[in-house]
Amino acid sequence: MSTQEMTIVEPEPETTNRKSPTSRRWVVAALVAVVGLFAAGALSIKARAKEQVTLAADTARLAVTTVSAGYPQPEPRSNELELPGSVQAYTESPIYARTNGYLLRWYKDIGATVRKGELLADLDTPEVDQELSQSQAARQQMVAALELARTSADRWRELRKTDSVSQQELDQRTSDYAQAQANLAAADANVRRLQQMESFKHVYAPFAGVLTRRNVDIGALVNAGNGGSGKELFNLALIDPLRVYVSIPEADAPAIRAGMRAWIALAEFPAARFTGTVVRTANAIDQNTRTLLTEVDVPNQDGRLLPGAYAQVHFDVPLNGGRLSVPSSAMLFRSEGPSVAVVGPGDRVQLRPIVIGRDFGTSLEILQGVRANDRVVENPPDSLETGQIVHVVADGSERKRP
Questions:
Q1: Which DSSP category does 276 fall into?
Q2: Which of 61, 224, 255, 266 sits a CA distance of 20 to 30 A from 320?
Q3: Prediction pTM value
């Protein structure tokens, strides 16, 4: 029993000795894995912390609006002032009928050049003709009554000398004679009125010019005057010379005076200049537009210029003071009026109201509001406010200091 027990017991230590290194390896592997997990976690935490720092920096950088800015540019000193103008006829008038009737015939059509007093149309006026005949007959009655009253008054005057009639009867006959004279004068006035109405059946040109419209044709019913259903027969315009009306900005108004030379240009004649003269101004600034209405008369003997055309009017005047210009995109529209954003110390924005002179399309002439050393934001966002910090980029598009 003892020997067998010893035989059985002896192998156990060997088995235990063989398993012990394996267990240690597993323990070491587990420790290495745990350390690796801790190291990976630490690296992940560090990476996340770095990303958060980077994200915070990017967020802070993006929170500052990036803008491009430049300096206002000086306008070249020129003596030429160019403004839009409207070409109008020197004299223009609609022509109405002065009596009722029907258009019998017309002699001039649109584009015709007419002289003063030239016949334009004839009207058929049967009612006026009959009224004139009636008034002339009534006048003949008044003439006969007057002759009878005169004869009676003379006869009663002679009879009164012999006391054949009373003084009362003589006074009655004398009064009848005076009344007959008044009736004849009234009849003469009525005849002259109807003769005048009769003359209106012939429509004449009131002045020399060009017919620009003919609104009626043969057989059309024509009413007297421009009231009710009546309408103008013709429209007559005097086109030599022409009036050109232009609105002068308030800043340049003091330089405009009567007698100045000016010239106009039209897109239809790109190589031509039409010389004119300033003849008058309104002598008052329009409170709505802050401009001075000015009239320039331009000769038009050859008829090349047409009333109603759009023209560019050029004046040879000295510009007052220095002028600066900024890009049109720099202007902000606010309830207070037009303004621009100027970048001040510390890259802080200041919104300034401006007074605009001329609009050149891509740029604006600034009369008040900015100085030559101001950095003006060229494309400001609508959300830009005074005191806001911006980041100014320095690229090739930045306008340089003048």
A1: E
A2: 266
A3: 0.54
